[in-house]
Amino acid sequence: MIFPYSEKVHIENLKRMIKVFYEKKIISLHSMCPATEYFSYLSASFTSDDISESGFRNERTNICKICRSFVGAIDQCPCKSMGEKEALRRTLIELEKKEVTK
């Protein structure tokens, strides 16, 4: 995990997470989060040696905002609020846009 979490970090994490999703033939994106170690939503290990517990909470809030705004989700994880297929579709579109404008 690289801190501070930014859209640039999010994009790199998304690319790696999607690669893992397809290579390992994972059934559901619901169990994945681009901001966690090994992309495991269930373990949600937002850890860093230089971040305190209170800093962790603030950073996680920022992480979630970055992720939601990336695909236009309002108040929940994109896979939950718009469905997994739509979240993936929007993510791929946004990644393509960002690569073109890079």
Question: What is the mean predicted local confidence, pLDDT?
Answer: 76
Q: How many beta strands in the DSSP annotation? A: 0
Q: What does the radius of gyration come to? A: 13 Å
Distance from first to last alpha carbon? 22 Å
Largest sheet: none
Unreliable residue stretches: 44-59
Number of helices: 4
Strand content: under 5%
Helix content: 55-70%
- Total number of distinct structural domains: 1
Based on Cα principal axes, name the global outline: globular
Helix and strand succession? HHHH
Structural class: mainly alpha
In a few lines, what is going on in this structure?
The protein contains 4 helices and no strands.
Description:
The protein is mainly alpha-helical. The chain has one domain. Helix content is 56%, strand content 0%. It is built from four helices and no strands. The longest helix has 19 residues, at 53-71. The chain is globular. 20% of the residues are buried. The model is unreliable at 44-59 (pLDDT under 50).
